[in-house]
Structures are given as structure tokens and as C-alpha cells.
Amino acid sequence: MIKQVRPSTVARPIGSAIKSTVGAAVSGSRSLASVAETYYPEEPVAPKIVSATVPGPENAKAIEKLTKVFDTRAAYFVADYYKSLGNYIVDVDGNELLDLYAQISSIALGYNNPAVLKAATSPEMAISLANRPALGNFPSSDYAEILADGILAAAPPGLDKVWTDLSGSGANETAFKAAFMYKRAQERGFDADFSSEELESCMVNSKPGCPDLSILSFETAFHGRLFGSLSTTRSKPIHKLDIPSFNWPKAPFPVLKYPLDKYAEENRAEEDRCLAEVERLIKTWPNPVAAVIIEPIQSEGGDNHTSPYFGQGLRDLTKKLNVLFIVDEVQTGVGATGKFWAHEYWNLTDAPDIVTFSKKFQAAGYYFSEPKIVPNLPYRQFNTWCGDPSKAIIARAIYKEIVANDLVARTAQVGEYLIGKLEALSTKFPTKIQNLRGKGTFIAWDMESPEVRDSFLKALRTNGVNCGGCGPKSVRLRPALVFEEKHADIFVDVVEKVFQL
């Protein structure tokens, strides 16, 4: 049984923190070491647990009330977002937890960030929310500027166009649609008209109007929970059960040994094996492959890494075999790995054809550069909202703060510090920290079993740290970009205390 350890340091009260923080400076040059303090002068100095159990009695009441109208079975606890601040999430019992999960990797700048709150309460935002433009038909007069200053300013190297969507799953789904339409346009001729047979057969879900094309993904991949994306998601059965699927190929994802540089020779052989199988599948799969999709670091599937050699090999293969290369940066993008986009570690000569995004941008969509990836007629890539300018306004605020405070470099620095502390801890607890790996603060390790991992995560919450798992038995760290060395010290101290129980 894992027992509770209460941190000895008392946290500051933060009930009025949001009001005072909104008035703080929201951009400009700051000392990198003091960014979090500038944003959050009233952030707690340590976790604080006030209920006898976590979750506590107020959580139980809130869950009971919400369960009557909403499925709460996956809820860890009910949060109080009015009081949550910076790197700390507060629950309805008043417990203040250091948060290394950050809304499943989707909080970039901490809770109630002043720059984000300023954007969220601006007249520009009010107009966007009140009128919710149907962007495909009635784009707003300022949408080009909003995109140019935010989402497009952050575009991965080599990509200069964007299609916006509503979620990470939606970003991948629309990327798949773009890949299929591009493939058929190649085969038909980009300037050719649709045949009457194509137009008629698609209305009864038949060929040639509905062709047997496919998207190749990898073992243990996660690309979303919608119909098309589920056919590329392969991380857990629970995601896919009972849902009809497409006959799409699954390639092996390299099972590497860590640390990667210590096992370079064995890992190269494993990546060669997987690349050979990707090539074989593309050449032989009965439903022609329109695109290959991969996460630079498989996230839900267990924080599985590849080397630059593998990314470069995939880029070369997709060009050679005339299929599009889609990089899913929904969870890895926007700075957490110590680069703005994780695939930048691959040092590709040619950019991916499509890069999808969401999470830390709190907006979603995909980047591309080839003009012919845009379908040849309107309404082929379309829905009522085609994204949301309100989310693009938030993404712009996030991007500007990241750049103004050099938070990508800062995250790389803090990540190096944190992984060094965890390496030292792993020498004391080698069975509890296995296969430690990470880039920036995008860090994970394995534990002895799923049961031990799950018990450990519960014990962390009991002791004031909110953290998540992934894969069968991995612990994953996903803090905000304002997570600093002082937060890392608290986290490692709590981990060590839990390990000692």
C-alpha cells in the first residue's frame, strides 16, 4: 500500500491570483529564469493537500452531480479553474497540485496565463465568439491577419499554408481527406474533370467514386478517436472496440533501446527492419497507400522514440514511392520537446508534406506547402466552421509569448535539468525508473507493471502532484512551457518520497 506524504512547505493562498495576474506585464523581454514568477507572482510555492483523501468529499459531491448528465468515469478529480494558477491545478476540495499533465499536454503557458486571458477578454475575441463565423462561406475580415501573426508564423520549416479544424482528431481526418483527394487527382490528372461513373458510384459508396485507398500508420500509434483516425490508431483496444474500420496497413514501429546513443548499432538495425517493412507494405498493400502518418514521438502509445535516421528514411521512402508524408504533431508540437516541432530533430532535407497540430496551440489543423493539396473544387474540404477564429486568437497569443520569452529554449534547458535529476534517482530506484527517455520536458519512463504504474500515479496525486501515464506501463511528463527548475525539484522530491514507501 502506498501512503500519503504531505509536503512540508505551505503554499500561498491563490483565490485572488487571477485578478492580480491579469494586470501583470504580458510580453516583452524577461529574464528566462523568472518567466514563471513574472506571469504568476502568486503561484503556490509547493503543493498543498487539505483533504484527508484525494479526491476528497467535495469532489465526490461534484462527481455525483455531474454524473447525472455527463459521463465522469474517466475523471481524476473536478478542477477549480478559477483558482488554478501557473503550474498548479486546484481541485474543488482546495487541494493545490503541481501539474505535469497540463490537460493532456494542452496547456502551453500555465493556468490563467495573463497573455492568454488578455486575448480571451479582448473585443476581438468577443466579436469572434458572439458571431462564430462559418469561415468557409463568410470568413472574418481579420482572419488572414490572425493566422499570419500566429498559427502561420509558427509553421514548420518548409510549410506555408494551413487548413484549420476543430480538434487533433479532426486535423488528422481532414489531412487524410486531403491525401486521398491529392492521390486521385494525380491519377486522374490535376486538370481533368470527374467522370460520370465517379459521380454516380460515390453516391452508393462504390468504386471508382469511392476508391479503395489507405493510410499507413504504425503499431502503438495514436491519431485520434474519429472514424478515419481510429483506423490509424493502434495504441489501446478500448479506443477501437465496436467501431467499423478501414482495411489500412499497420507497419512496425521501431522498438528501440534506451539511452539511444548507447545502443546505436542495435537501434539502427531495428529501424532498418521497420523501414524495409514500410516499403514492402506500400508496394504490396491491396488498397493503394495515399499517405504515411507518424508521430515524431509516439505519445499515447508509450512515448516511443525514433532516431533522425528513421525520420529521414521515411521521408526518402515516401518521396520515392509517391505517397504523402504526414507528421502528427498534435501532442509533440509547440515547444514541449525543446524544439517548436519535434520532427525538427530529424533534420529533414525535404519537409513533410503535411504536419497536423492541436493541443498546446488550443487550436487545430494541418500545415502544408504544395498548392495542389488544396482540393480542386470548393466544399470538398469543408464544414460549417472550418476551425474557429477564437481558437486562432488564443494560438496567436500563445505563439507570441513563446517567442517573446524564448520558451522553447527554456524548455530544453529545464528538460535537461529534470532528466538529469531523474537519471540520478534511477540509480537509487532502478526497478522503478526504467528506460528513462525524453526531449525537452517531454519525458517518460517505464515501471515494473501497469498496476505499479497506476498505483504510483494515484500516490503522486495524493501527495500533490498531478501526472499521467501512457502505453502499458509508462509514466509521462507533460508540463507547461513555464515549468522551471524549482518545479522540477519539487516533483523529483515527491517522486522519491513515494518510491521510499
UniProtKB/TrEMBL annotation:
GO terms for molecular function: 4-aminobutyrate:2-oxoglutarate transaminase activity; pyridoxal phosphate binding. GO terms for cellular component: mitochondrion. Its EC number is 2.6.1.19. It holds the Pfam family Aminotran_3. It catalyses: 4-aminobutanoate + 2-oxoglutarate = succinate semialdehyde + L-glutamate. It comes from the Eukaryota. Belongs to the class-III pyridoxal-phosphate-dependent aminotransferase family. PANTHER family: 4-AMINOBUTYRATE AMINOTRANSFERASE, MITOCHONDRIAL (PTHR43206:SF1), AMINOTRANSFERASE (PTHR43206). This is 4-aminobutyrate aminotransferase. It comes from Magnusiomyces paraingens.
